[in-house]
Amino acid sequence: MPFEPRETLNPQMRCAIYTRKSTSAGLDLQINSLETQREVCSAYLMCQSHRNWVELPQRYDDGGFSGGSLERPALKRLIGDIEAGRIDMVIVYKIDRLSRSLSDFIRLIDTLDKYGASFVSVTQTFDTSDSMGRLVLNILLTFAQFERELASDRTRDKKAALMRRGLYVGGTPPFGFTLSKGGRLLADPERAPLVREMFDRFPTTPANQLAREFRERGCTTRKFTTKSGRERGGWPIYTSRILNMLRNPIYAGYIVHRGEWIRAEIEPLTSREQWDLVQQVRQTRFPARRDPVRNFLLGILHDEQGRRMRIHGGTGRSRAERCYKSEYASWSRDGITRRVMVGADRTEQLAVSALGAFLVDRVELKDAVLSLGLYSEEIGRLLRMGHRAAKRLRRMDQPALRALLSALVPRAEVNTAELRLYVSCHELTRFLGWDGVGLFEKSSVKPSRSADKVHVIHAPAFLICGHPRFALPVDPCPSQGAAPKPWLVDLLNKAAELRAFMLSNRSQTLSQLAREKRIGPSTFARMLRINYLAPDIQAAIVDGTQPDHLTCWHLLKGAMPLDWEQQRRLFGFV
Question: Among 123, 165, 199, 412, which lies 20 to 30 A Cα-Cα from 392?
């Protein structure tokens, strides 16, 4: 038998090193956890050079990302290169660097097996080619997930214990308080008198008058420096800030934890009786006019910056169009990050229709259910319930929709291109098996961390609209003696009339509409496009200030770009 070359007996293994760090602290240092993990993995690869292992130059580093989710940019690039056949082996320092979730890790191992790639943990050597190695791998990963959940439970229990003892759990101190070195709230000698004045004068003085007086006196919030070195605070006191402060029970010396009023170990800035009186006055002056049943996305919808979107319009004398508008968060008052507004009716209809389409899509519904790790015959039964759940969704009234979305969709986000619905997979399985009796409400039993998964529904749509006070670029008429050309004005009026006629008879074709008006189809179409002239061009034609060379032939037979700036250049307005 002829001798085979060494490369054939021991082929080259292209190895990619993946590193991860849960927090972003220390990433700016030259020597950090990511570099340390990479050095150990590179040294291990050099020891395996006799097996023809080669380290790839691409870096897959996730700094500041938790191992409880697969939503990590470097990990996504790694999976994409594995699927493209560029990687033969993945090297990690420990298996919990790749994932701390058992179900996510199983999906990653399935992906590696599907594309013929291997997985090696440097500090936990085992062979995954046999059943015993896979058993050890699953046991180690189970303990990694348990460690992550245990740390979360400890943090949550510690905060709850501190609140039950009446201690402040941290964060930016409320206005009128400062933090001592021991982490206790102390009355701010400069701003505590302002808080007492607010509570004393609010029952007899309007909130906007109080805010105006405080601004005239130069009162601002306390300045402080964050851990990253950024200076925050120093903002003026507006009416909204006063109203938010007046309903905070910390000023009466209490902390509310899960509906329970706990006496805090701080010096109250007002009495409980005065605080109750202020709440009665505030509710009388500012009654709750935002019905969460009618506005069933209230508290769920956010913009892409993470700001909660509140409802505007639809009430009062103006009866303005109802819309969702992002709240004016203090960190976004930089003049660059603008607030976002979307139409309420259109957004709510899209959310319901996108959820209904998701329920009848067996492939996407299967991905959401499988993310919980339900590998049993129960999956087939739940998937068959999708069409019935979609029909039940279409028959729901607004109170039922509000109860369903509050349980099923903990969060929704809107941006310039799409609406995203974050569906709770745990509540989704409950809704698929729901018998339809009563309102579907959120389960009182909190799911485990492994079952607390979400599935993202993407609904492409351009929902973001302009401000209601948006001004069109129409300048006033500069000449009082200009005489409009009647044939051009008649052309605009005729085009508007044909557009209204077309919209009222949308069931007919363009040829049928043109035949009824006794106009050729080509002329009918050219007349319609005149409606898309720039607003300042139409205003100039009505005022008679258009260029002298502009005629009906230019508008009907000439080119008509949709861009307004190109129209101005083409017709001589620039």
Answer: 412
Q: Is residue 375 part of a domain?
A: yes
Total structural domains in the chain?
A: 4
Co-location of 131 and 219 in the same domain: no
Per-residue pLDDT of the chain (574 residues; tens, 9 = 90+): 343 444 445 578 899 999 998 887 777 776 788 888 888 888 888 888 888 888 898 899 888 888 777 888 899 899 889 888 889 888 988 877 887 776 677 778 778 878 888 888 888 766 555 566 667 767 766 776 677 678 777 887 787 777 666 677 767 788 888 877 777 788 888 888 888 998 999 888 888 888 888 888 888 888 877 776 777 778 888 888 888 888 888 888 888 776 778 887 788 888 889 999 988 888 888 765 556 667 888 888 998 888 888 887 765 544 567 888 888 665 555 555 677 888 888 888 889 988 988 988 888 888 888 777 666 666 777 788 888 888 888 888 888 888 888 889 989 999 888 899 999 888 888 888 887 777 787 776 565 555 568 889 998 888 876 554 444 555 666 555 667 888 888 999 999 999 889 888 888 888 888 888 888 888 888 888 888 888 888 888 888 888 888 888 888 887 778 778 778 878 887 6
**Integer distance in angstroms from the first to the last C-alpha of the chain?**
85
Instruction: Examine residue 291 and state whether it is found in any structural domain, yes or no.
Output: no
Is residue 22 part of the annotated active site? The answer reads: yes
Instruction: Mark whether 136 and 35 lie in a shared domain.
Output: yes
Considering the domain architecture, whether residues 452 and 308 belong to the same structural domain is answered as yes
How far apart (Å, rounded) are the C-alpha atoms in residues 245 and 377? Answer: 53
Query: What are the Cα distances from residue 268, in Å, to 77, 177, 261, 271, 473?
Result: 53, 10, 14, 7, 54
**Can you give the residue range of the structural domain that contains 497?**
486-570
Q: Which parts of 254-298 are beta strand (E)? A: 254-257, 260-263
Q: Single out the residue in 225, 260, 285 at which a domain terminates.
A: 285
Q: Is residue 155 in a domain?
A: no
Residues in CB range of 104: below 8 A, 6 or more apart: 68, 69, 70
